[in-house]
């Protein structure tokens, strides 16, 4: 192990070089905090947008809203940009703000331990290095570990297996018999992108999603020029998009007349694109809009109706060496299986052991479901800050709007620790419990908690993921670091 006496203690250690980690570094830098290190387990930046480069990968939030307000991009090529362009924007952030000097690539954190005598976090890594920091920002992201479904025989399949977040670009799909398992956000982008290449495409659906039309247009040159010459014009568009998405909360988060209006729009979109009554019936959701993630696509339904594409709604019994066997006894044979089955979301655990005050383990405390104060701090873990922590998930607006609020809060808290020369800033247990009682009470009245199963909920139905309100409300709660809610730990 590295000698504690010779290893420098940095002000801030950031774990992850995706949007959250890089955004945190930029804002810390802008506030004069330059003493930091970013640990990234991969060989390049990008996080989920580095990993999700499958055919058709794109964002379902408009580009001008899915970017940082403190680093606007006037040159987005489309209303909804693809994954490659978003990854390019992330690389641009690294270059624009000279962030590469902070990043240690190929460094996978295996544990965090709070040294309460010194007031320092110790981070151990897979390669044997140890890093020390006064404060730590957890920016590894909730959508970072691909999740395969729990289907019997999944290891028996002898053909090619591809997860949407681990796409093999060297595998040629031309002329292949391909099965897609899943009908979530990645599947409805993959299916239209590959249906014209493969010989036969079979889509296995467990639950039909609500799908809304996607108004995606190429950005005209005059608009890019206007954004470059008049940044206020781009800012005005961003605000308009923000307010439009805020209004969607009334239909998505809570059961209201707008929910019925949104459902009518979804059914109109389905009826307009799918003329076959039986197929339309199979694709009609049987749960309230908002209970699961609402998807946007204008080419998914047409793709399902191509002559070489078939939708299967029978439950999967098992996977065997040749393909997929459904419960009615039919074996569907494939050359390739694509798993569009999302991620293992840590809504009831941590990505690696985190040891706090008096040896307490965050993983043990979160076994029944994760909880935190304002989604960002946990009592007993001083100077540890979460991005996309418990109950910070957006259901209707840009994730980066929420992330900016978290980052600004973190910067204020780090500045408080350094300016007051504190050993630690530890949220009070009472403040955390009070905050979460209010959050869970509000969640009980949302569409997410109406009984349908989704990745938002733990196995026993606890919602540790979503924020039950407007993005404006979330930003308001993050505006100030209320010191009375914290224990200010002085140096002895």
UniProtKB/TrEMBL annotation:
Which InterPro entries would you find in this protein's record?
A: FAD-bind_Monooxygenase_sf (IPR051209), FAD/NAD-bd_sf (IPR036188), Flavin_mOase-like (IPR020946)
Give the top-rank taxon of the lineage listed in the UniProt record for this protein.
Answer: Bacteria
What are the UniProt keywords, alphabetically? FAD, Flavoprotein, Monooxygenase, Oxidoreductase
- List the Pfam families hit by this protein, alphabetically: FMO-like
Q: Oxidoreductase: present as a keyword of the record?
A: yes
Q: Which GO MF terms are attached to this record?
A: flavin adenine dinucleotide binding; N,N-dimethylaniline monooxygenase activity; NADP binding
What PANTHER family does this protein's entry cite?
A: FAD_NAD(P)-BINDING DOMAIN-CONTAINING PROTEIN-RELATED, L-ORNITHINE N(5)-MONOOXYGENASE-RELATED
Name the record gives this protein: Monooxygenase
